[in-house]
Amino acid sequence: MVTIAQANLDNPRHATGIVDCLDAYAQDPMGGGQALSLYARQNLITGLRAHPASMTFIAQKADQIVGVAVCFIGYSTFTAKPRLNLHDLIVLPEQRGRGIGRALLKAVVGHAEATDCCAVTLEVRKDNPTAQTLYRSLGFGGGSSAMEFWVKPVEIR
Q1: pLDDT tens-place string over residues 4-22
Q2: Which of 5, 81, 88, 148 has the most CB atoms around its CB within 10 Å?
Q3: Domains of the chain by residue range
Q4: Edge-to-edge strands of the sheet including 2-6?
């Protein structure tokens, strides 16, 4: 049985599981195909802990963290309400196809509803039909915005 909970970043088991899940995702072709850098592995939890608008949900099967949803609270100036962005949704490769991603996503949406958010946002790769199918099945869509997501990389020091 899988349980979903908000992560306790001070819990070493939670912290290790989160880093391991994110590293597995980074190594997947959908995550870029490269392991997390040593810097990212060493600083991820500290950074999430220090970021005032972060929240992470974990999926646990027995004592193993098998999935993670990393979210950040933003703010919609047009609705004057918070908006929850799902930044990463990860299920370990050997655990996929068992409803874990769906359960994590439902927990994120449930939290957004309980905290009076106006929306849950996320990004999905155009070449990831599996994720798109999951998101659509829970009511996500392309939205009405004609905006594109642009990036200006900044050198990491």
Answers
A1: 999 999 999 999 999 999 9
A2: 88
A3: 2-137
A4: 2-6, 54-61, 64-76, 81-91, 120-122
Sign for the pseudo-dihedral over CA of 65, 66, 69, 70: positive
Q: Provide the percentage of residues in the chain whose pLDDT is more than 90.
A: 82
Residues in contact with 19: Cβ distance below 8 Å, sequence separation at least 6, in sequence order: 36, 41, 44, 45
Q: How far is CA 86 from the centre of its chain?
A: 5
Mean pLDDT of 70-93: 96
Which of 66-75, 79-88, 141-150 comes out lowest in average pLDDT?
Answer: 141-150
pTM above 0.85, yes or no: yes
Fold that domain 2-137 belongs to in CATH: Aminopeptidase (3.40.630)
Residue 95 to residues 21, 29, 61, 62, 151: CA-CA distances in angstroms?
Answer: 11, 17, 10, 13, 31
What is the distance between the alpha carbons of residues 53 and 110, in angstroms, rounded to a whole number?
Answer: 17
Q: Judge contact between 27 and 35, C-beta under 8 A.
A: yes
CB-CB contact of 135 with 124 (8 Å) = yes
- What's the CA gap between 18 and 45, in Å, rounded? 8
The C-alpha torsion from 97 through 101 and 18 to 3, rounded to 10°, is -90
